[in-house]
Design a protein that fits this description.
This protein is α/β, with parallel strands linked by helices. It has 2 domains: about 210 residues, Rossmann fold, CATH 3.40.50; about 120 residues, Coagulation Factor XIII, Chain A, domain 1 (Distorted Sandwich). It contains 9 helices and 19 strands. Strands 10, 12, 14, 15, 17, 18 and 19 form a 7-stranded mixed β-sheet that branches. Strands 5-6-7-3-8-9 form a 6-stranded mixed β-sheet, sandwiched between helices. Helix 3 crosses helix 4 and helix 3 packs across helix 5. It is globular and about 80 Å long.
Length: about 400
């Protein structure tokens, strides 16, 4: 396995034997000793020929319906199950968050359960001792640690279990299964904050979830498992779309209709050309960035013998225009003929004179023959600026100072 690969799953298959007749007493064992069906079983295929590699530092998602084999796959990677066929290789220390609170004893106190669960995760008493205060602080259960766990609410138990797992998890690889599906809003917020931290720290993570929003936000790539096989692999957004298309067709249709509405929202003009897209080389600028680059794609829908005029406006969050220009003003006007279906790709370069905040860009297209607005896109896209030299003014150009005495 390559040194750059954290987890390699190679042609993994797993099946379980399910008996047809349950023997639940000694009597039933001897009533029909010659019953031929007693030893018969059905083989259930949980996974079939699963293969993928996860590079170090990748946040990798696994999605699928209940019963598709997601959790079985996670347990094979964790070493809880052994595959019938294939192999799994893991480089680095692995910590599974597969079932929060497994191993907790309701008759023990919260304090005692911290040490017990730490031991189950492979940590010594001394290692748990060092981090005990951090675990309690994260769980926000300082007043309850000497109470028995059976007196905790379900939310308190989840918070304690998650705190033990996260604070102690000094690992290279983490396996996370549906932890966001439980707990109150504050606990889920902590989950999200923790995910942002481990993503920033470049931990290798496998994340199983039914929440396509979380898959999109955190995962770099994902696989979709259906009927125990991988049926799709791609970016997190592509996989989330495929999941929705396959299993939530009504939701998918509604989303596509909404996207069409949003795409056209704010667009107006006499027609003849359409502004197809707008993007930025960097959507978040800092003081180190000298320029903002804005890319605009336009498609002509009719002929323009004298070409077109392209414009841009940048506003602040209050809707106040800060700056703007067009190709005629900056003498970049091209009077070359534009034909039907022609694609025009523009790149606007704007000096970074912006103060800290969020700013909105509106592109426009005009006909040079009569200056009619062919297409305008209100509130088309936005970008952010983080500026350490924040001032109370609308713009913040780099201003030099020389002092002589």
């Amino acid at each position: 396995m390559s040194k750059d690969i954290a987890i390699s799953v190679h042609h993994v298959s797993k099946s379980f034997k399910l008996p047809h007749e349950k023997i639940d007493s000694v009597k039933s064992l001897f009533v029909n000793p010659l019953n031929k069906n007693r030893k018969r079983y059905e083989e259930q295929h949980a996974l079939k020929d699963i293969t993928f590699d996860i590079p170090k530092g990748e946040f990798f998602g696994i999605v699928g319906r209940n019963g598709s084999g997601k959790s079985t796959l996670l347990k094979i990677i964790a070493g809880i199950y052994q595959p019938n066929q294939g192999s799994v290789s893991v480089q680095g220390r692995l910590v599974p968050f597969i079932e929060l609170g497994v191993g907790f004893n309701p008759e023990l106190t919260g304090r005692e359960n911290v040490y017990l669960n730490g031991a189950l995760l492979g940590f010594t008493k001394a290692e748990v001792e060092v981090k005990y205060d951090s675990i309690v602080e994260f769980a926000e259960l300082e007043r309850f640690m000497d109470q028995k766990l059976k007196n905790y609410s379900s939310g308190m138990q989840v918070r304690l279990a998650f705190s033990v797992a996260t604070v102690l998890a000094e690992s290279d690889v983490l396996l996370i299964d549906e932890v966001l599906a439980v707990g109150d809003a504050d606990f889920q917020r902590k989950c999200f904050e923790y995910f942002k931290k481990i993503k920033k720290d470049k931990k290798t993570v496998i994340f199983v979830s039914h929440d396509m929003g979380a898959i999109r936000e955190y995962c770099d790539r994902a696989v979709l498992i259906e009927k125990n096989k991988i049926v799709f692999e791609g970016t997190s957004d592509q996989t989330a779309k495929e999941y929705t298309r396959l299993f939530l067709p009504d939701v998918y249709k509604a989303q596509q209709n909404e996207k069409t509405k949003l795409k056209n929202k704010g667009k107006w003009g006499l027609g003849g050309a359409s502004i197809e897209s707008i993007s930025f080389t960097k959507k978040v600028l800092t003081g180190a960035d000298e320029n903002l680059e804005i890319r605009v794609k336009i498609i002509s829908q009719k002929e323009y013998p004298e070409g077109l005029i392209y414009g841009i406006t940048i506003k602040n969050q209050q809707g106040e225009g800060l700056c703007g220009t067009n190709s005629r003003i900056i003498r970049q006007e091209s009077k070359s003929r534009i034909g039907i279906g022609e694609v025009i790709n523009l790149t606007w370069t704007v000096p970074n004179v912006f103060n800290e905040g969020r700013f909105i860009v509106e592109p426009a297209v005009s006909d040079p023959a009569n200056m009619d607005v062919v297409a305008w896109w209100d509130d088309a896209a936005d970008f952010r600026v983080i500026n350490e030299q924040k001032t109370p003014y609308k713009i913040a150009p780099k201003i030099g100072l020389a002092v002589k005495s």
